[in-house]
Amino acid sequence: MACLAISLQPVNGPDILLQTRSWFPVSRALAAVSAFRLARLSLARGKQPHASPSSSASLDAIGDDPLATGSGQLVVGVESQYRVVYRLVNSIYVLGVTTASDHAAPAVHAFAVADAVNQAVSVLVAACRGVDATPDKVHRKYPEVYLALDLVLHGVGSVRLSQILATIHGDNLARMVNSSPDAEARARGADSWPVVEHLAQDRHAARDGFAGASFELPQETLSAGDEFSASSLAPAAAAATGDEPPPEEAPPIEKDPFAASDMVASKPEEALVGAFKKNKETALVVADPAAALAGLEVTTLPPAEATKPTFIGVEGFEGDYGGIEFGNEEASLAEAFEGFNAPFGGGLDASEFVTTTKKDHKDKTLTGLEILAMSGGQAPNAASSGSQLDSLVTPSKDMTVPELCIVEEINAEFKESVLARVGLKGTIILRTLPPKKAAGRETEFSFRLEGTSGMKRAALQSTVLSSLENGLFHVKTPSKEEPIPIMKYSFLPKHSPLPLRLRLVKRHSGTLLSLMIHYASNPMLPQPLSNVTFIVKLPVDPTLLNVSPKAVLNRAERELRWHISDIPLKGPAGRLRARMPVDQDSKDGELEVVGMVKFAYQGPFTLSGIKLCPAINSTAQFNEVGHTFSSGSYRCI
């Protein structure tokens, strides 16, 4: 489609005019024009990184604007992209908006929009009586400019545009709008409608008359024609045949379509068997297989160079692929194709396609890339003997007073770029002195909680903790070896901070599935997140896969994992891309892809902002150890 909207945007101040087609939403046109303004201002500020706040007014100057050229084009928008063709007239941008998603003929659309923008510039220059165009001059001739740009948006020729420019400073707006078509018709040498209107009326009347007319001949005319044809053709027929009557034709005899042919009926042996004669040498050929295989051609094996592995340099899947050694005749088929089961060998086992005996692997999941995914599998087994709280709270060797820490879990779900739901819950954990050090004494102290304004609800373990109102709590419990959860709480969604913002973009075109994850860190975090794992649940087990950056594929779980060592607090958003062919076509429905994130933090700060303080501004009766917050169900769909 060609030009969808035309706008007049000054360098400083609000937009002067926005004219759209009747079927194009005004909200989308406003979004495209606003995105152009934001892009222009951001580029202007990017050229002055050391500008002081007092000189912020100079950012809107034309000389500091990278788009301050005579003309050009710019693609704006994120979800819906638009191509904006612009021209700068003094201090006013003339903008033409069209779509940027049509890849069939983008150049044709760009030139069509540029033609409309050039015509709009002519209207603007004519209305301002020169190239010194200002918003004040445009406002003086606003009705004329509005109607003229509406005609330009719907398409006008050069003759009609000249008539509009000549009458734009007249006193009659109707003359400028209505007299233009007649002027264009006169310039092309065409007649006006009143001159040719009677021809159209005659044509309609003739069509109605022919539609109701009947062309059947009367019966008397048909009888006269039959008598004339009989009298004229009788002598010729008599001369041709003589006095004898013509011979009568024998009626055709119907044949059985399922009857046997004459060849089969007459000579059945010759037709069905081909009159083959017995050969006395047949028994000798059957008895000697070498004589039977004497006429067969054996295909030679490929040369040794064709069996060498091929190096593939695709990012994330570098390595040698293929390579079969035919010289070792005693090697089994699984050993010959062992290269395909390497960590970067693609995970193809050729023995699945032939009828042969496969080796029985005891652990089928620990092959290929799955070894990398299971490389850290020994750590959970070693820690499984202890409880979950023991892994969260590590006791100090020189503990002299009780210790408190906060363990929080953040859960969030994003649908594309919109946050669907979020939940933050936490637990305050107490570790008392060991019973041997306590010597039978009970653990008893008080503390105060700060930063609980966003807390939704809390549950206390009444046998250990009691509330003293106003955020004060008192602990009294016998000494124990294991840590004790004394309070659990949850936060309101609007007060739950998000460590990461996610967005999953999925495109399913034909049998090709492409996906990308955008992620950005919360700049208000106390310190950057480290050792973050992004997991994508794939709908199928991919045969070919292209990822950026490098990732680990777990075929058993159909998971794709990216490990990011550090995510900066401020900076551009990160991108994780993957592309693979699938069996299901996009016309049969969309495939479900789910992205998840695993991260954890341990340090002196909490995600919710809750602080543990002494009950009285004096020496604390407890030690505050490292707090922890981690991700629970943190995913994007």
Kindly list the characteristics that best describe this protein:
637 residues, five-stranded antiparallel β-sheet, 27% helix
The amount of helix comes to 25-40%
Distance between the termini: 33 Å
Please report the total strand number as a whole number: 26
Strand content: 25-35%
Number of helical elements: 17
Tell the overall outline.
extended
Mean pLDDT: 76
The CATH level-2 architecture of the domain at 5-47 and 60-155 is identified as 2-Layer Sandwich
CATH class of the domain at 5-47 and 60-155: Alpha Beta
SSE class: alpha+beta
The radius of gyration over CA amounts to: 44 Å
List the helices and strands and how they pair.
Layout: E1 5-10, E2 17-20, H1 26-46, E3 71-76, E4 82-89, E5 92-99, H2 106-127, H3 135-140, H4 142-154, H5 158-166, H6 173-187, H7 193-212, H8 219-241, H9 262-266, H10 268-272, H11 282-287, H12 289-292, E6 310-312, E7 319-321, H13 333-336, H14 370-373, H15 378-383, H16 388-392, E8 403-415, E9 418-431, H17 435-438, E10 443-450, E11 455-460, E12 465-467, E13 472-477, E14 484-491, E15 500-509, E16 512-521, E17 529-537, E18 546-548, E19 552-554, E20 559-567, E21 574-581, E22 594-598, E23 600-603, E24 611-614, E25 623-624, E26 627-636
Parallel strand pairs: 8-25, 8-26
Antiparallel strand pairs: 1-2, 1-5, 3-4, 4-5, 6-7, 8-9, 9-14, 10-13, 10-24, 11-14, 12-13, 15-16, 16-21, 17-20, 17-22, 18-21, 19-20, 22-26, 23-26
